[in-house]
Amino acid sequence: MRTLRWVGQALLVILGGALSVHVGKDVNGDQLVQHAYGAAAFLNGTLAADFAAAGIAGFNNPLLYVPWFLGTLHLPDYAVGFLIGAIQALNGVLVWRIALLLLDRTKAPYADLLAVLAVVLTMLTPNSLLQFGRTFGDNWASVFFLAGVYLTLLAMVRAEAVGARSLPGSRLLFAGMALVGAAGALKYTNLPYALMFGLALLAVLPRPAALVGSACAMIGGFLLVNGWWMAELYSLYGNPLFPYLNRLFESPFAVPEGFRDTRWMFHGWQEMLRAPLSLFDRGERHIEGGTATILWVVLFAVLAIYAIVRMGRGGGAAARPLRRFLMVFVVSAFVLWALMFAYSRYLMVLEPFAIVLVMTLMATLMGDSRRLLAMAAAVSASILATQESRPMEWSRVAWTGDWHVQGRIDLPAGSVLLSGVAEVGFIRGYIPETVVMVGHGSNFFGSGLASDLAYEEVRKRVREARGPVYSVRLPPLPPPSHLDETEARLGLEVSEEGCFMRELAFAVVQDGIPRTDSQILFCPASLAE
Fold first, then answer.
1. Closest CA to 36 of 506, 511, 510, 514
2. Is 527 helix (H, G, I), strand (E, B) or coil?
3. Is 0.85 surpassed by the pTM of this model?
4. CA atoms within 13 A of residue 72's CA, in its CB half-sphere
5. Measured on CA atoms in the order 336, 338, 339, 340, is the torsion positive or negative?
6. Of the candidates 426, 410, 433, 435, which has an alpha carbon nearest to the alpha carbon of residue 505?
7. Which residues of 34-156 form beta strands (DSSP E)?
8. Is the predicted pLDDT of residue 180 greater than 80, yes or no?
9. Rounded CA gap, 25 and 81, in Å?
10. What is the largest CA-CA distance in the chain?
11. What are the distances in angstroms from CA 219 to CA 34, 86, 174, 251?
């Protein structure tokens, strides 16, 4: 059976890569704005010379996108697409292993079948389908998170097997916690889940030494991946998490409130209590374009049934540590998501645990009954039937051989590029390192986050330019609404004379329609006297 599992998991990874190639190359605005920019600026050492070139998200740790960007430079685009799908399929492999750890403890029949069902459901959630083969990174960083949870659960299983009061698998535990911390460093939206992960450990590890060691391991994993970046941000802007939490750090480059995306937040406790149902019947409320999932309704319904059955049995024995851990983690993390985000894409790292928990609780409720298989099939069918009731899709294009552009863009040394649209961030990897990029058309300025000093920093870059200054546009994309106001506040003048085009093989999306063989427009710009 072990060999069969290994073969199945290997096939899952290969299938993930093949399907990623089949569905086509990813086109998304975030990729053009900051995914390629951050990796390129990190690799060529221009992070300090540029300023807000990729907007708010451009200040996030760029390491997550470096492997992908290196692939776009050195491999055919379909090969990169295969690797993206294969890496994302590792989420399914880890769900398989986590599900078996929990289901084996229930002594349920068909444990392997239930684990495979958990994998299928995980890979077919709207978030998984939406991001499959794409570069958003939620389902890249989730590999680290899931691996961390798997190692932690494995340490608990080994301790349970020998009846130890202290964990004989403490190295596994600490490695798992470090991976969870690393997942939070790579994608800040995972940090609330990392916090709830630590909280869940309190329910199963009431041992001070293990808890302190786990906390140190998680912090260590976070700092190992993100410490250098926090030091870089602090040296440049005076805030190690810039532009976040600026009320605390008071960087002079941003307003003191810092940044928080409140577009999706719940309004009041009554709306928040309806969160599971809202994700199903008001999917458009939680993500651009709208998508629906009944997963959370099913989860909380099964949790309620589980609680009622246990009370009917007089409370029964305490839930096993792994099951107790998963219940505390999933419920508390979902509540924190509702409080902080209410944006459904950020639930992606939590969805696999919700699915495994549903399977585990069903197996526990049904005991050795063979009705378990029918019940699992019915629940799985109901989830699958409704996951895509409000489908959405961000455009893909055909494979062309190169990911974004063919060749480099020759510009004079010391030039300054002002982004008339944020989507030009991706060209950072295709221009000389001596060229400076400034994101005056990015959401850092459009959101009202930029302080007076930030505007002065843009003027400084223009005044100190050792070459020509250009405002850069992508003609298929309209300039942002705030651009005229920003340029007026900067005292920036853009000339229509002397503009020139560069023909590049890349794709953008306008009104949901992918456009290829696009042009980049460079127009001379200067500060008014």
1. 506
2. strand
3. yes
4. 26
5. positive
6. 426
7. none
8. yes
9. 7
10. 83
11. 26, 29, 11, 24
pLDDT digits (tens, 9 = 90+) for 426-435: 899 889 999 9
Residue with tokens 């976070």: 222
Report d(CA 457, CA 48) in Å as an integer. 12
CA distance 73 to 75: 6
Q: Which of 344, 421, 431 is nearest to 125 (CA)?
A: 344
Distance of CA 164 to the CA centre of its chain: 37
User: Can you read off the two tokens belonging to residue 366?
Assistant: 């049904």
∠ CA 35-343-117, nearest 5°, is 90
Q: How far apart are CA 98 and CA 95, in angstroms?
A: 5
3-state DSSP assignment of residue 254 = strand
Query: Rounded mean pLDDT of the chain?
Result: 87
Cβ 201 vs Cβ 325: under 8 Å: yes
Residues 6 or more apart from 37 whose CB is under 8 A from it?
53, 54, 58, 425, 426, 428, 437
Give 476's DSSP letter.
T
Q: Which amino acid is at 434?
A: T
Between CA 315 and CA 304 the distance in angstroms is 14
Tokens of 56: 């708010």
| Helix H or strand E segment including 520 | strand 519-527
Distance between CA atoms of 478 and 422, rounded to whole angstroms? 11
Question: For 75, which DSSP code?
Answer: S
When pLDDT is averaged across residues 94-110 and rounded to a whole number, the result is 82
Locate tokens 């958990």: which residue? Answer: 118
pLDDT band at 267 (very low <50, low <70, confident <90, very high): confident
* 133 close to 399: Cβ distance less than 8 angstroms: no
CA–CA distance, 106 with 361 (Å, rounded to integer): 9
**What is the C-alpha to C-alpha distance for residues 254 and 458, in angstroms, rounded to an integer?**
13
Q: Which residues, listed in sequence order, are joined to residue 64 by a DSSP beta bridge?
A: none
How many residues are present in the chain? Answer: 529
Q: Helices marked H in 205-318 — which ranges?
A: 208-237, 246-249, 269-273, 275-281, 295-312
Cα(131)–Cα(144) distance, integer angstroms: 17
Confidence band, pLDDT 50/70/90 cuts, at residue 197: very high
Q: Which tokens belong to 266?
A: 């719940």
pLDDT at 161 over 70: no
pLDDT at 375: 66
Angle between helices 351-366 and 295-312 (to 10 degrees): 30
Whole-number Å distance between alpha carbons of 292 and 306: 25
**Which of 31, 53, 66, 38 minimizes the C-alpha distance to 435?**
53
